[in-house]
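Worked example

This section walks through a single chain of length 456. The input is the sequence exactly as stored; nothing has been trimmed or padded.
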Amino acid sequence: MLFDQIKSPGLAHFSYLIGDGAEAVVIDPRRDVDIYLEHARRAGMRITDVLETHRNEDYLIGSRELEQQTGSRIWHADAHLDYQYGQPVEAGQVWGVGRLKLRALPTPGHTPGAFSYLLLDADDNPWMVFTGDALFAGDVGRVDFLGEDRTEEMAGVLYDSLYQEILPLGDGVLVCPAHGAGSACGAEIAERPITSVGLEKRANPRLQHRTREAFVADVANVLPQPPYFAHMESRNLTGKPGLADVPAPRPLSPKAFAEEAGRDDAVVVDVRSELAFASSHVPGSYYLYKSSLEPLAGEFIPVDRRILLIDDAEDPSTIMTRLRRIGFDNIAGFLSGGMLSWNIQAREVAAVATLPVYALCQILDSKRDVHLLDVRKEEELATQGIIQNAQNIPINQIPARLDEIPSGRPIYVFCGSGLRATTVASLLKAAGFTDVTVALGGFGGWTSVTCPIVRS
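Given that input, the structure is written out below as tokens.
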């Protein structure tokens, strides 16, 4: 028997390869499908079917890529949508996978026509359930994609799916969700890549409510939606273009890179370390750190912009693949030789000033006319503490709220580590702010008297 949970960093996305005998099935594949093909080949299995739990919003599905390379059949959920490929799943539908079976369970709520898939062992015992975005470890799927006016309705539908289809399967059934901690598809997903029905009954805060009404009141929230989500929703109905139709990015000399970067529709994306970026970077470039590359790109870069990439790796293909998972096919090229080649040609560079937290506290207490910008999220403020007299704008809200940030004073950006602060500093510099400094480090050295931390 073959069981693989395929993790996609940055997206916190989980897809699955299940096989037995000579047959295998993939659930919710990502766009770059080589890993499924390789694992199935090593196991001596052929991928016969691809099952989708719902129409995805945060990444491009790889179903058609697998169909083209293996001849597998595609089964999609949300049959009410205008899919241009595959066949719709029906409630109770069963697929044989060697000695195993997969059965379709209707679990709407996150989307109107979502499905989960129950894996039965050779003796027809319920073994695992692949829940898509219906049930996560420590959380449930968001219910706001149809609009704020329908969140309570969809939360009630999700409650029925959980309590009528998933939870009655039995405490020992393993739960295999489509996302892990850090995904934009859930607010409080726990760091348990695989969990169980029984564990979620005990430990999942969303499942502790005594009534349907209490569950709805807790779950019917509107969460931030990165701008690229709408593009993913549209593209995932067509599955086009395939990766084979996407042009390969070109290595560019510093001269060619500078010419491309000068185009109005171009954006330079730098994914080196925060300290490397701060010390020297191409003027006007955005800093996106690798651990959160996809959500940052989805927040700050329009999908129709031409991307020019700077990495410290000789082969930036991994970064390009990750960007293509969320539809950034227009990668015009990358800087051959990285910043070293740029500097050797003595081309113009920019920098971002940095300082440790204790030095920032001394500046704040010196009564200088400075501005502290705290870019942590609201939930971090609640758990870590609020910095008094600081302006708080969460990182994902910065582009829409630039006019709230004073431009005539030195700005010090704080996030708790320095990564997000460096990203925000790059956005501010690109927007014309000149005096921007990043605070490196967290709360361990915070001693400011004028801007103390107030903990709830």
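What to look for: The mean pLDDT is 94.
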